[in-house]
Every structure is written in C-alpha cells, then in structure tokens.
C-alpha cells in the first residue's frame, strides 16, 4: 500500500473512531438525562387521588391524558395525533345491565346488585321451571332444554392454578359452564355461590354494574346473547333446590357511548430517509377508577404500577430523545382503555396517525416498578411469542450492557397459566406483524388493588427499566436495517 493510502486510511479510521466515541458519549449523556427524581415526581402526580384511578371512558381518564399531553409538550415532543394535536379520540360503547331488570325465584323477589348479580347485559323475559344439576357435563339435554338450569359454583374440571383467587375462580366457572348449558338449550343459567365464590361477591358488583366495553370493529366481550346468567348468594341454595321451583326474570340491557383517547407524540429523526420510519414506545394511561372493593376502605385504584410507571417512563424517554434524536423518528403512544380489552391499542393499530408501514418496532411497557430489584420480564423473546429475533437480540444486548436484570422467561412461555403475553398493548401490533417486545416487572400482590400506590414503587428499579427501554429503542432507531419478522411467525391463539 502506498504511503498516502496508509495515511488516508489512518486518518479515516481516526475520524470514525472519534465519531463513534462522540456518539457513545452523546448517548450516555442522553441516558443520564433520565433522572430518577423527575420520574418520581411524575409518578406521584399521575398516580395521585386527583385523577381518581383514571378509569377509561370517564372524565378522569381524559383529565389524566391531558396532563400526559402537557408534559409531552413541555418535554419538547411534537404532536402526532389527529389534526395536528396530541390526541386521537375514539368511542367506547358500554353495554350494561339496566337497573330496571328484575329477578324472582318462587315467591321471593331478589334485589339487583344486593341479592342477585346479572352477569352481563341482554334482553330476555324468562318464566320457567328450575332444574338443579350437580354435574353440568352430565346434564341431560332433554331435561334442561327450555328450563332455567341452576348449579352451585364448583371446582369440578377447574385445573387452572389461578382458581385460588376467588374472583378468577368465579370467572372461570361462568366461562366454562354457561356456554355448555346454553348449548343444551337452557333458558337461563342460575349460579349459586359456594364459599369461595361468596368471597368474590363484593369484587364482582362494581365490575358487573359497569358491564362490557367495545369499539367499532372489535367483537363484544359477552359470553351469551339473550340468555341471562344470574348469580345468587349461598343462602339461596335451598330455595333454588326446592322441587318444582320457578324462576321469573325480565332482564334489560342499555348502551352508552363514551369518549376515550390515545395521546400521541413524536421526536423527528435526523436522517432524511430513515426519519420517515418510527420506533413506537407504548404504554397505557387508564386504570380501574373508583370502586368499593372492601367496604369502608380506600376505594380509589390509582394503578401506580399499572400503568403510571410506564406512562412516566415514556415521558422520560421522550425527554432523552428530544436531547439526542436518533436517525429514525421516535413515536410515543399513551393508549387509553387498555383495561377494557386493549381497546386504545387496537384502535391505534387499525388507525395509525403515521403510515402503518413506517412502524419499525413497538416497545411496550406495562408494570415496570415492582418485585425484586434485580429481576424483570421481557416478553416476546420466546417462541411462539418471538416475532422478531432482531428486536429481541437488541433488547437482550442492551440489558447486558446496562441494568443486567435477571430475566424471568417463564412468563413468556405459551404454557404459562397467566397468559400474560396476551394482556398488554403490544398485542394488537403483533397481530399486524409489527416487531414488538413487552417490558415488565410482572404482577404482584398489590396488582389491581387500592394498595397499588406511588409510595410502593421501587423508583430506582423503575429508572433502570426506563433506561433499558430507551437504550433498546435508541439502538433500533439507529440500526442500519429495520428488525425483521421471524419467518412463519404465528401465535398459539
């Protein structure tokens, strides 16, 4: 090689090395901008009683979303919602049981929401004899057709370990037996509490009075259509089993439309071509609102971990991108109505405010501030949930560089009883074949209780999770190639 070529080669390598060092230093400076105290301040604000649990379809959710949008604006993020705003509004259709509904067994009238729970809204007039069964699988179709089939809650056939939680036990039994009895011609299904179901009664009332929610284009979450599912307390068991007993009910449904909203913001990329592509950071704003889970106790479910932690993490990541933009653009979506069935993320996946093909990857966070300080979950890295090896590899590599969390991979397996992979906002994007992963520190005893308060969150761990998520997204946003989908990728359900 000629001397001048050696000199040019040495000069270029020196420049590239210096550029690489400067880039690394800049990235480090941006990560350092993710401040623990700022995260703490945002968390205690968003998870405060002021927002009353941020229930989807209420003014509380809208008020919290306005706060998130204002913080995004202050952080320098540009609006990326509809019509030049930070907002993408959509309608929630709420269907619930009307208080005009009546239930009578024999000569006794049952007071709705006190003595009887109607499981889901429908329109039905029933006047029929009761047939009591002890084994729904063996119930004779000819004997139950046109009758009201009564049964006591039972563990029979329930192998799911989650049945130890009374509310889940009740839900599993209703799910498993109602459809089977309806298929045999039952006019209505009447469940009677056992001891475990009785423990779920107070939890069930605020949930059932709210009813079910959906958006246009998404199926109803109801089990049956116009076949009432009714639940009475254990003390009514002898009445229900009385020979030649009758059941009379007039069940009415009613529907309302409420607004919900996604908050959408962005930081433009620096590369003229790659800036047209987006790395999407995802979380959800809503939680469960005000519910009297236990009479006389705290009734506001503030959802500090679920999911105020992710909301404030996205704000911190946005500030870091504003300080040091990447080649690709960063898109931030705070979804609404996640607790109603991932409705905000399903809506955005169907109606993105940027071209759908421009979405390079989705990094979703849900519950990222609890459990052991050195452990975490990263879902979407184990087949069949692994939809992008490229994206998973980047996330795993960034974990090794930084927080070095011990990853609990069991929750990512198709065989895990919680089915946790299917319960957060990355899922609608995965179903659109967009590379996605799910950052989480998993469930805990305070999950969906009034005790999920800001004071219980490990702010240090939350900050580490935020930095890990940022570093992963920043690497994806600067990669030469966008992550690829695993060939033949298909979820188990």
CATH class of the largest domain: Alpha Beta
CATH architecture of the largest domain: 3-Layer(aba) Sandwich
Total domain units: 2
> What is the β-strand count?
20
Class by helix and strand content? alpha/beta
For the biggest sheet, the summary is: 10 strands, mixed
The proportion of residues forming helix, as a percent range, comes to 25-40%
Q: Pick out the low-confidence regions.
A: 1-19
CATH topology of the largest domain: Aminopeptidase
The percent range for strand residues is 15-25%
Corresponding CATH superfamily of the largest domain: Zn peptidases
The total count of helices amounts to: 13
Give average pLDDT, whole number. Answer: 93
Radius of gyration: 26 Å
GO molecular function, one term: metalloexopeptidase activity
Pfam families: Peptidase_M28
InterPro entries: M28_fam, Peptidase_M28
Protein name: M28 family peptidase
């Amino acid at each position: 090689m000629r001397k001048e070529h050696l000199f040019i080669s040495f000069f270029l390598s020196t420049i590239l090395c210096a550029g690489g060092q400067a880039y690394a230093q800049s990235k480090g400076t941006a990560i350092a901008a993710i401040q623990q105290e700022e995260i703490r301040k945002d968390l205690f604000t968003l998870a405060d009683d002021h927002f009353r649990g941020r229930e989807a379809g209420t003014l509380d959710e809208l008020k919290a979303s306005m706060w998130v949008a204002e913080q995004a604006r202050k952080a320098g993020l540009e609006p990326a919602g509809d019509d030049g705003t930070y907002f993408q509004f959509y309608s929630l259709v709420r269907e619930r049981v009307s208080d005009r509904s009546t239930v009578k067994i024999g000569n006794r009238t049952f007071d709705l929401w006190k003595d009887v729970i109607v499981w889901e809204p429908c329109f039905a007039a029933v006047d029929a004899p009761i047939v009591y069964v002890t084994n729904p699988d063996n119930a004779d179709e000819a004997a139950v057709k046109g009758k009201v089939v009564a049964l006591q809650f039972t563990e029979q056939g329930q192998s799911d370990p989650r049945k130890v939680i009374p509310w889940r036990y009740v839900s599993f039994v209703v799910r498993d037996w109602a459809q089977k009895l309806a298929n045999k011609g039952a006019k209505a299904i009447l469940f009677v509490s056992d001891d475990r179901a009785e423990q779920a009664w107070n939890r069930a009332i605020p949930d059932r009075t709210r009813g079910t929610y959906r958006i246009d284009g998404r199926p109803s979450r109801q089990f049956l259509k116009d076949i009432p599912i009714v639940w009475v307390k254990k003390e009514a068991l002898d009445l229900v089993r009385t020979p030649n007993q009758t059941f009379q009910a007039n069940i009415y449904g009613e529907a309302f439309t409420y607004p919900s909203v996604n908050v959408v913001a962005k930081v433009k990329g620096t590369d003229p071509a790659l800036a047209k592509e987006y790395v999407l950071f995802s979380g959800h704003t809503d939680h469960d609102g005000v519910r009297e889970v236990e009479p006389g106790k705290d009734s506001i479910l503030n959802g500090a971990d679920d999911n105020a932690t992710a909301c404030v993490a996205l704000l911190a990541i946005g500030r870091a991108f504003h300080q040091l933009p990447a080649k690709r653009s960063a898109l931030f979506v705070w979804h609404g109505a996640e607790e109603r069935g991932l409705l905000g993320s399903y809506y955005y996946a169907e109606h993105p405010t940027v071209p759908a093909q421009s979405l390079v990857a989705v990094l979703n966070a849900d519950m990222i501030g609890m459990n052991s300080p050195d452990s975490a979950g990263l879902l979407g890295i184990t087949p069949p949930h692994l939809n992008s090896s490229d994206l998973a590899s980047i996330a795993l590599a960034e974990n090794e560089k930084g927080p070095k969390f011990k990853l609990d991979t069991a929750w990512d397996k198709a065989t895990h009883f919680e089915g946790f992979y299917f319960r957060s906002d990355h899922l609608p994007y995965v179903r659109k074949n967009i590379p996605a992963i799910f950052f989480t520190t998993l469930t805990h005893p305070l999950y969906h209780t009034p005790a999920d308060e800001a004071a219980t969150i490990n702010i240090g761990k939350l900050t580490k999770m935020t930095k890990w998520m940022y570093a992963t997204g920043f690497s994806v946003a600067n990669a030469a190639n966008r992550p690829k989908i695993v060939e033949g990728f298909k979820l188990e359900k």
